[in-house]
Input
Amino acid sequence: MSDELDEIQAIFFEECAEGLTAAEAGLSAMKAGDADAETIASVFRAVHSIKGGAGAFGHVDLTAFAHRFENVLDEVRAGRIAPSSGVVKVMLSSFDILSDHVAFAKGSAERPNDTAALAALEEILKNGGAGEAGEAPAAPAAATVAEAPAPAPVEDEDPFGFTPVLVSLDDFDVVEEPVAAPPPADGDWIVRFGPSRAALSNASEPMLVIRELESMGAEIVDVDTSALPGLRDLDTEDSYFIWKLIAPGTLSESELLDCFDFVAPDSLIEITRCEAAAPAPVLEIETVSVASAPPVVVDDAFVPIEPIASATPVAPQLRVVEADDPGKPARMEAAAQTIRVDLGKLDMLLNLVGELVIRNSILADRLSPQDQQRVELPELARLTRQIQDNVMSLRAQPIKQAFSRVPRMLRDLGEATGKQVNLITTGDTTEVDKAVIEKIGDPLTHMIRNAVDHGIESAEKRLAAGKPAEGTIHLSAEQKGARIFVRVKDDGGGINRERVRAKAVERGLIAADAVMTDEEIDQLICAPGFSTAESISNISGRGVGMDVVRSNVEALGGRVEIQSVPGQGTSITMILPLTLAILDGMIVKLAGQRFVLPLASVVEAVRPEPGQVMMTTPGNEVIEMRGQYVPVKRATDIFGIADTRKPEEALVIIVESEGVGHVGLMVDTIDDRREVVIKSLDQNLHPIRGLGGATILGDGSIALILDIEALVSHPTAHRFAMKGMAA
Amino acid sequence: MTKLILTVDDSASMRMLLKTSLTAQGFRIESANDGEHGLERMHEVNPDLLITDINMPKMDGFGLIEAVRAIPGFKSTPILVLSTEFSDEKKARAREAGATGWITKPFEAAKLGAAIRRVCP
Output
């Protein structure tokens, strides 16, 4: 059972994430002055749902905070508090704390310090809702306490202040005279019950109550029919009877009251105890009359009924009752339009489809064109492809998930740097493979930090440059073919190339006299260990730089593009594959074996003229390409296989690597270009540097996929240095 | 006879919690994810009891209860509200709309079961 609960809790946290996204979107709209009713309601609902679920799973802190937040939202929703910019600001920072509370509940973060946020919310409730102080937000049990005390200071606040006390003990509607009872035994209870018309119309069945009382040992002793009108005036939908029962004195009053949980408020419910007060024959009667307040709430039937329940907080824990045979509760709930599927199952499906694709191409290889037609192979291939596309799309998620933490980051960064930054987001519904989304979080974080820290100038500088004081960051995602372009574009000062260059020289990344284009200088910010910050700030300078962005993106089979215009801003683009399971590959022969080169890395292929490939130092060859020298690698360098061919007998594939720039790979032939299904080697082998996996080709043979980055990156090989030499 | 309950809540985890804990107590559960959907499902499912949340997109719990009560066949179907809200005002509204009872979230499974049996034995 607890596994099941864990599973549901995991879904709850997913809902939290969705709720937080929705709340943030709403709050951002409100910040932009767009505070229509539906927007406010959406924020309210999101926070409200988080609170509800948090309560069910016993996340006390989260529940308490969400509750306070919700109170303010409720006031705003009801129009009692105006969503002024000050109020929205408090709500935004409360939102941040709420996110932190969710993370804390999840166990992925420390408990946030919410004292300030709670106080700010409290302040809004006090001042914003002027004249409504009595409607205290967290005043416990408003139902029972007519004159609610002023809200307690935050620190003393009982986190369960909202645990409702639902049965009102207020003595109103006291029935004038206790019934002259037929002889009840000493200490027995006399129960009078007259359901109201409303009780009947709300489907609360009087017989159920009476039957329940009977099951507890009560007996009907009388039915008061005095209210019954003549037949002509009889309203068949109305209720005219008052039952009188005697219940054993061994029952507690609350046990009796429990039976009336769902009886409509205006019903007559009277419970009195008979006490034979010794000498006098007069019955002394203690009357508890419940003109049941709200449609009674069950919770309280189980809580000792005290006027102020805040003194006895009850942990809102969910306990699922273990039944002998739980009747195999369904593990997966089919909601209306969605079904949640274990990711492992999807991966398995994807793997199998991959196999299917491979078998298909094997068939295509082995069968003659006539046979292919005869067995309708093309049709089969088309279906296979469709299945593959569909399975891929199952794993796709809107990139919104990765974008969702950006607004919060910008607020934090704004606070830390004093730079005000607006965010424009486009294309956040673009769908990308889940694995890709998970892995671009860090690079994205760094790109945003970088943009705020190094890109956007201070307000003064911006004004001086004739720009608005507030900077703008445009975050966009767009699909082009099988690639996703995720771009962070700022309207800051652009890359300071002088400084970048100087730094690179200082760091020994380039020769002092290296001749470089602007684009190449821009690329330097991605070089390992490079940081343009004059002093390491605590924003971007966390020991990582844009090189982390680059290496993460490359690990995904993508690349980073940088464009910068001095004075106008910088745009950094991550170009990512839509999926990590399929690769567009070039199949080449190298030392007699077939390998797959990721097509994304291939720039061009050349058959060298005699003399075009030359040796610089023993074992180091370069190829001259339009006046520039590009290092060349042979199988000797890669696999230690002797390769003594003349270069002009081979092909040189120029590949682009983010780390090293262009590098030539000397191969025998190019065999084919096709999409291959990537099979991981990790399960069977140690990670091998230079190999990104394997695939099965159409003829059933296995080809290794080359990891260009790992293969060519070598600390001494650097294209900028090489170019310096060429110049 | 196993009682058939329709639960209406926009939170999937809440629906699952209800389903898990009530199935274990011998109820049959169907669910819907907002008021509109709930109303549709009422006709399909024809449950012995309706449990609904209040704050939901599209049609909220009040709207759902009113709409259900307006259907002759559901006049005597017990309706329980399961919500984190607990203000008198909201409860009064629910009652007016025709709710049979109100249960405040978070709920304890056994007590929820007892409450259900109370209105729908």
